[in-house]
Amino acid sequence: MSINQSPEQLASLLRELCKLPKETEWVEFKHNNGDPQMIGEYISALANSAALLGKQSAYLVWGMSDEDHALPGTSFKPSTARHKQQELENWLLQKINPKIHFQFLEFDASDKSFVILEIAAANHTPVQFDGIEYIRIGSYKKKLKDHSAKERELWRTFDRVSFEQQMAVENQSSEQVLKLLDYPAFFELTQLPLPDNRAGILNALEVNRLIVKSDSGLWHISNLGAVLFARQLPAFPHLERKAVRVVLYKGNNRVETIREISGIKGYAAGFEGLIGFINNLLPENEVIGQALRKSVPMFPELAIRELVANAIIHQDFTLTGTGPMIEIFADRMEITNPGIPLVKPERFLDSPPRSRNEMLASFLRLVGICEERGSGIDKVVFQTEFFQLPAPAFEVSPEHTIAVLFGHKEFKDMDKEARIRACYLHCCLKYVSREPMNNTSLRERLGVEVKNSALVSRIIKLAVDEHMIRPYDPAAGTKAMRYIPFWA
């Protein structure tokens, strides 16, 4: 997609498109026809055809003759066009599903006006306009449902090409690549020596699949390269909303916002800065130990690091208009990522890692940002137990996954749900550590005195009744009784 292209760059793109043959399935030329229905249908058709042909973008050009590619210019001005009492672009956005990135680019060349509509290729499902999917067959626009072979091929394309392998921008000079990507951060994180020449830098980025050499000798930046090492994510229009948002609220609800900020760097380049920023926003608790009073953050940093890394890695990039978000309340922190998990939340702690974004996960493991084996949730649970915090919660909404860290609470202030959750996760942690959970271990985890062991027994019974845990040996005596998770 375009990155703040100047009129000169747009004129150069126009000349390149002029050189294309007449029948091109990812480019269409018009003179003055600005019919909104026609434009919407072409957005669908061109986006789907671009995906089928492995193109990052498709184009609808005004001011060029379809027959001989002459350049008479155009009177069409999308910036002022309206349809059904709405701005044209807003009307089109409402009719396009899923929401893909497209933009009208107006410019002058040789004292004539031109417009290029740049359209992102479909990336996980065919693009519809007004409920109908279109495709290009040669130079003709057709309904996709009438061409079953093309439809099957398109779906196979979506299965083959992961989000990370798709291109964020195409045909960039080496200078532009090094301006867009924070390559010093790449070499620092990978602990590789920084080459003393541009060719060495580009070769290292290419080997790690962050950039791809084009047939013309220029460079494409992959989505993997952009989301990891963008100097500024907003420079890549379809990735701007993937930046991590951090919101600090005044109380325990979202009524009053104290501060809100969106990150601009790629995930790898900006991770340490992001964690430092979050820690600086956190309320602090006072801890007294051996005559010393000191303040510590409300949540352990290791737990924050693991959950933020998980939110980044496991997000569903096909959901548009949303990205990872960290919300800090007076009594808790909620870390949300787009997409529902690939494993059930109650199995987060013991399940082998599964990610939609294997290349992203692999790189972040390589540079030590996330857990190398497992999900890291065992570390989160261990940290909350070590610091005597309530057990974390993991929730799933129709399109998002939410991890919740809670601030310190005395046992007497925990509700039934929090006590059962603490019991279950403690049992899971003990099981994966090959240690037994019993009344004593749970009592120590919850900070309950020996004289109140009966309270802990009631919590264990509740967890058993809820089918969260079960006795390892039902025939064992009361004092010898130990427990394992329901799935063990």
Q: What does this 3D model show about the protein?
A:
It contains 15 helices and 23 strands. The protein is α+β, with helices and mostly antiparallel strands. The chain has four domains: about 5-160, Methyltransferase, Cobalt-precorrin-4 Transmethylase, Domain 2; about 165-240, Arc Repressor Mutant, subunit A (Orthogonal Bundle); about 245-410, Heat Shock Protein 90; about 410-488, Arc Repressor Mutant, subunit A, CATH 1.10.10. The longest helix has 17 residues, at about 35-50. The protein is elongated and about 90 Å long.
Q: Under the CATH scheme, which architecture of the largest domain would be assigned?
A: 2-Layer Sandwich
Estimated radius of gyration: 27 Å
Structural class: alpha+beta
Total beta-strand segments: 23
H/I helix tally: 15
For this structure, the CATH topology of the largest domain is Heat Shock Protein 90
List keywords for this structure.
alpha+beta; single chain; Arc Repressor Mutant, subunit A; Heat Shock Protein 90; 488 residues; 4-stranded mixed β-sheet
Write a short abstract of this structure.
The chain has helices at about 5-20, 35-50, 90-95, 150-160, 175-180, 185-190, 200-205, 225-230, 265-280, 300-315, 360-365, 375-385, 415-430, 440-445, 455-465, and strands at about 25-30, 55-60, 80-85, 85, 95, 100-110, 110-120, 130, 130-135, 140-145, 165-170, 210-215, 220, 245-250, 255-260, 285-290, 290-295, 325-330, 330-340, 395, 400-405, 470, 485. It is of the alpha+beta class and about 500 residues long.
